[in-house]
Design goal:
This protein is of the alpha+beta class and 700 residues long. Among the domains are: 258-449, Adenine-n6-DNA-methyltransferase TaqI, Chain A, domain 2; 514-698, no CATH class. The chain has 24 helices and 29 strands. Helix 1 runs antiparallel to helix 7 (200-242), helix 16 packs parallel to helix 20 and helix 20 (632-648) packs across helix 23. This is Type I restriction modification DNA specificity protein. Keywords: Coiled coil, DNA-binding, Hydrolase, Restriction system.
């Protein structure tokens, strides 16, 4: 399939003038594609590529040390750029018209053209440097790097990747129009808004497209304002509800209902009966509420209380032992979304472990489920209503259950969902993870109306929120139409007028054979380690090649029992035409089929695979080190530490091991990675990773 060029919204590109600049450049390149009908790879325009220097930034040193984070809005404040002491200046020195590209992280693909750098400036490891050859204009390459012709290809190459990246091979294979330097010079002048008489048609197309883009952008901005208006309206409704303003008229019409203070006494008496019947444990008295704690005034018939006073059960879930399927689902924080319950994200518990679960740990209708860990997820909550065929469910250790007595769960849900509460949640954690503790939940203040008024509030809020949801559906349709309009506006300007181009692009962009990749890695491992491995090593090596060596591995990896795991890779191993599965003293292993051996040896020695083969050799050299000695379990620990660094963006041992305590597995009698691997052994492996400087590849 040919590569399609289209408008790609970029999270780090928000300046409208820069976006228009990229659109203009795309139209210019599109024009050159159609006019000259010649296409080439980027490698034809450059001398070479060079990865940056790996070192720590210093306050003082002999070399300015440019990092991607030092480039803001296409500019560099060299005064604020840190230093390093580079031991190989000839390799890493920056010159005017050098082009730098970010090769990983949230700004993958972002570029910058160097202009008059300080003497002896070098560039950091997350960057790739390119230099134009004498036959080509570096500003033309810069024009290409700031176009959606470029971004379409970068995004296409990163489909399905857990962490986007580009490497030298990917960059060299990108396509652009093949034109001589005189045409390149004219393209640069047009991009810089200079007028050239013979390009009147192109100028008209640029002007028309940018005008239509601006009109569609106004519509999209208005749609986004409507979304924000809807969110603000919902919060205003909830705020009015919890302060009693929605039910002022109701209170005037119902003066003789049971007061909130009487309701609290009734709840207290019911609790005491449950304690006497040994259905509830006796609780420690909660601290008295002080005036300073009260956030706003409430009606006279209401009272402030602590959440623990009106609850009969508040508890975080347990870390379950998972199985592929059972009759008891486990609800995780992924299931608890704002305004909805996503059962598709549930996993299942091993029913043989249910004897460790007391009855109150199983979910009941009306329970409030409150996400209690994680940045971006902590604080999210829903009211549980079982609409499935499962009679029993439990929550994992990242979700708290709040089971109320007498009061309406929906009312408490509305209160805890307000911006007032969410913005002031006190979160902390023993493992440096963001956590909402049981103590915080129990002691949280809640304004309690009379029970009948709670019902009235819930009815009014539900009716008003339904209107908001209807409004949002209309806005969503408007957003879809607005985005379709923008894409339609740009499609005509970006699309090829040359019917042959799809075939040219297909020919120029090499189709990486994922089966051959695995076979090459298998043969190289066999040759260097004199042994064969099964799926565990294949999965771990694949992850390390992708995360550390930035190789174009076409698999997405997630945390699983034996470390990182790709379901697609697992399936491909069993269907790889170059491999067969056999048994050894260590279990199932994969070997090269005898009739395919010569073919894989030939592939291994081809120049285009040199970068991939070198990366494999680097990984295997680490496998041969005394700490690992090629042992599958040690490879698993290496993989676990690297993935923990990637996910936590930290090299702190306590943080890494804390993350491993939350990494659920089902191996022998182990339920977490921390149970399987001791802290001391984890430290040794972490030290090795740091010694190898692999952390520099894992942390943005």
């Amino acid at each position: 399939m040919g590569l399609k060029f289209k408008y790609i919204p970029l999270t780090f590109l928000t300046d409208e003038e820069q976006i228009k600049y990229q659109i203009k450049n795309t139209i210019i390149l599109r024009y050159l594609f159609d006019k000259y009908e010649k296409t080439c790879r980027l490698e034809n325009l450059i001398v070479n590529t060079q990865y940056g220097y790996n070192a720590s930034a210093l306050k003082n040193g002999k070399n300015k040390f440019l990092r991607i984070s030092d480039i803001t809005d296409g500019k560099v404040d060299w005064e604020s750029v840190p230093f390093c002491d580079c031991k190989d200046e000839d390799t890493y020195l920056l010159k005017t018209e050098d082009l730098l590209v970010a090769r990983t992280g949230g700004t993958t693909g972002k570029s910058f053209m160097i202009s008059n750098p300080p003497v002896n400036s070098v560039f950091a490891g997350y960057l790739i440097r390119m230099r134009a050859n004498e036959q080509n204009n570096p500003e033309f390459i810069n024009l290409f790097l700031n176009s959606y012709i470029y971004w379409s290809q970068v995004v296409s190459l990163n489909k399905g990747e857990f962490r986007p990246s580009v490497n030298a091979t990917k960059l060299k294979n990108l396509i652009l129009p093949d034109v001589d330097i005189s045409i390149q010079n004219e393209a640069v002048r047009i991009s810089n808004s200079e007028q050239i008489e013979s390009y009147k048609e192109l100028y008209n197309l640029i002007e028309l497209t940018l005008s239509e883009y601006s009109k569609s952008k106004i519509i999209i901005d208005e749609v986004h304002n409507q979304f924000q208006y809807s969110d603000d309206l919902k919060q205003a409704i909830l705020q009015e509800a919890i302060q009693g303003k929605l039910t002022e008229e109701w209170r005037a019409q119902n003066p003789n209902t049971e007061s909130a203070s009487e309701l609290l006494e009734r709840i207290k008496a019911e609790k005491e009966e449950l304690i006497k019947g040994k259905k509830l444990k006796k609780e420690k008295p909660l601290p008295a509420i002080t005036e300073d704690e009260i956030p706003f005034e409430i009606p006279e018939s209401w009272v402030w209380c602590r959440l623990g006073e009106i609850s009969k059960y508040i508890q975080r879930g347990k870390s379950p032992k998972y199985v592929e399927h059972s009759n008891v689902p486990v609800i995780s924080q992924k299931c608890v979304q704002w305004g909805r319950f996503d059962f598709n994200k549930a996993r299942f518990i091993n029913e043989n472990t249910l004897d460790k679960y007391t009855e109150e740990r199983f979910l009941q209708n009306g329970d409030l489920l409150w996400n209690s860990t994680g940045d971006g997820t902590v604080g999210r909550l829903i009211e549980f209503k079982n609409v499935t065929n499962y009679s029993k469910m439990v929550v994992d250790s990242h979700v708290a259950i709040v089971r109320l007595l007498v009061v309406k769960p929906s009312y408490i849900l509305y209160y805890l969902s307000t911006k007032l509460v969410q913005d002031k949640l006190i979160v902390s954690g023993s493992t440096k993870q963001t956590e909402l503790s049981k103590t915080t939940i129990v002691n949280h203040l809640v304004p309690i109306p009379p029970l009948e008024e709670q019902k009235a509030i819930v009815e009014k809020v539900q009716a008003l929120l339904q209107k908001c949801n209807a409004l949002e559906q209309e806005v969503t349709q408007s957003e879809q139409h607005a985005n379709m309009l923008m894409q339609a506006v740009l499609k005509e300007a970006f699309e090829s007028k040359n019917e042959k181009e799809d075939d040219i692009i297909k020919e120029l962009l090499p189709d990486k054979d994922k089966y051959a990749q695995v076979a090459i890695a298998t043969l190289k491992t066999e040759l260097l380690l004199n042994r064969n491995y099964g799926k565990v090593e294949k999965q771990k090596t694949g992850f390390l090649l992708k995360a550390i060596k930035k190789q174009p591995i076409p698999y997405a990896f997630e945390n699983y029992n034996y470390g990182t795991f790709s379901k697609e890779l697992s399936n491909d191993l069993d269907h790889n035409p170059y491999l067969f599965k056999t048994h050894s003293g260590e279990g199932e292993v994969y070997k090269i089929k005898p009739d395919k051996h010569k073919e894989i040896v030939a592939l291994l020695n081809q120049p285009e695979h040199a970068d991939f083969v070198n990366a494999i050799e680097d990984i295997i050299r680490v496998y041969k080190m005394p700490l690992i000695k090629g042992k599958t379990e040690q490879i698993e620990l290496l993989n676990t530490v690297c993935k923990s660094i990637l996910d936590t963006q930290s090299t702190d041992l306590e943080t890494i091991y804390g993350y491993m305590e939350l990494w659920m597995i089902n191996q022998d009698n182990h339920t977490t990675k921390a149970e399987k691997f001791t802290k001391n052994n984890t430290k040794k492996m972490l030290d090795l990773v740091l010694k190898l400087n692999w952390d520099k590849e894992l942390i943005n």
